[in-house]
Design brief:
40% helix; two-component regulatory system; CheY-like_superfamily; CusR-like; 223 residues; four-stranded antiparallel beta sheet; Rossmann fold; Arc Repressor Mutant, subunit A
Length: 223
């Protein structure tokens, strides 16, 4: 499962990243509100741990932006210990509110409780022919051999696998993977497809990614 920590104190952020990673989670860290907003828009998280006092957007503002489009569980982790602050955080849509300084054991217990409450997860494992993708461990292999992908290549392959057999337009791919409107003068999608093919198709006899002329790309086993 993937957790985002939005914390401007570098030592605290590193402590949380190390502890949660050792507990088996994938952890991303943002050191200010604007970077937190960017990561939230770019990736899907199972839980967000959020400080209140942040440079740029503060935690209140970031939670309000998040709640317009997402019900991802949010835990405030902050030194703001006044009752009115706790009430404000929960009324804005936070799922939990933990005061600094805190016990790591308590934090981990609360994290696990929130994750158990979370919405049903999407499919975690994908397979087509001899290609496997593990969404949680972010691992890809073909014929049992590990394939290393960049974050964008992984997101692109995940999108293609989740829509197996469908023809995906460049516009849809650009919006889903890069969160951008497709510009016909930009070949970012074609370049990314070419690089992904070089890793998961070129070394193998069975080709999985197909160009549909004038329409886009699809991933499937063709007879």
């Amino acid at each position: 499962m993937r957790i985002l920590v939005v914390e401007d104190e570098i030592k605290a952020a590193d402590y949380l990243r190390k502890g949660l990673s050792e507990a088996g989670f994938i952890v991303d860290v943002a050191l200010n509100g604007f970077d937190g907003q960017h990561l939230i828009q770019e990736f899907e998280f199972d839980l967000i741990i959020l400080d209140v006092m942040l440079p740029g957007l503060d935690g209140w503002q970031l939670l309000q932006i998040l709640r317009r489009t997402s019900q991802t569980p949010v835990m405030f982790l902050t030194a703001r210990d006044a009752i009115e602050d706790r009430v404000k955080g929960l009324e804005l849509g936070a799922d939990d509110y933990l005061i600094k300084p805190f016990s790591y054991a308590e934090l981990l217990a609360r994290v696990r409780t929130l994750l158990r409450r979370g919405p049903p997860r999407e499919t975690e494992f994908f397979q087509i022919a001899d290609l496997h993708l593990d969404l949680i461990k972010r691992r890809v292999s073909r014929q049992g051999e590990r394939i290393t992908l960049t974050n964008k290549e992984f997101a692109l392959l995940h999108l293609l696998l989740s829509r197996e057999g469908e023809v995906l337009s460049r516009t849809l791919i650009a919006s889903q993977v890069w969160n951008m409107n497709f510009d016909s003068d930009t070949n970012v999608v074609d370049v990314a497809i070419r690089r992904l093919r070089a890793k998961i198709d070129d070394p193998y006899s069975v080709k999985l990614i197909h160009t549909i002329r004038g329409m886009g790309y699809s991933l499937e086993v063709q007879a």
